[in-house]
Design a protein that fits this description.
Elements (H helix, E strand, L loop, with lengths): L2 H10 L5 H6 L9 H18 L2 H14 L5 H16 L2 H11 L10 H4 L15
Helix pairs in contact: 4-5
């Protein structure tokens, strides 16, 4: 969403329908209430089944920290460092091997111990809240 849309919603404080949130790109999808939880579980399952947890955690932190980057070049440099750090890792090797062997990947790296040092520590809490 752009700054104009964000400013309108923040300044007016009005309540708006899900259709407007979708149109304004505040959300990526809208579901009827009875379909929401199954859809969320399906998306979570797709992510868990098909991606490296370390890569997803690193990308998530990188994307959020990039929102406060001083410039696009700063965000690009952080992305390049992360690609270099993870590109030769065990999960990258397993992902390519599984693809070539046409099988489900079994990523060995763990978020709790294998995030490289270049991954931003965001979200930091500078105020201790």
């Amino acid at each position: 969403m752009g700054i104009a849309q964000a400013m309108e919603w923040a300044a007016t404080g009005r309540v708006f329908p899900a259709s407007e949130a979708l149109e304004g790109r505040l959300v990526s999808r809208v579901y009827p209430q009875d379909e929401l939880l199954p859809a969320a579980y399906a998306l979570a399952r797709e992510i868990a089944d098909n991606t490296s947890g370390v890569s997803v955690a690193a990308i998530r932190r990188l994307m959020w920290s990039g929102l406060s980057a001083a410039s696009p070049w700063e965000a690009h440099a952080a992305d390049s460092r992360l690609m270099a750090e993870l590109g030769g890792g065990a999960d990258a090797v397993e992902g390519v091997t599984a693809f070539l062997e046409k099988r489900q990947a079994d990523f060995p790296m763990k978020v709790s111990q294998d995030l490289p040092p270049g991954v931003p520590s965001w979200p930091d809490d500078p105020y201790g809240v």
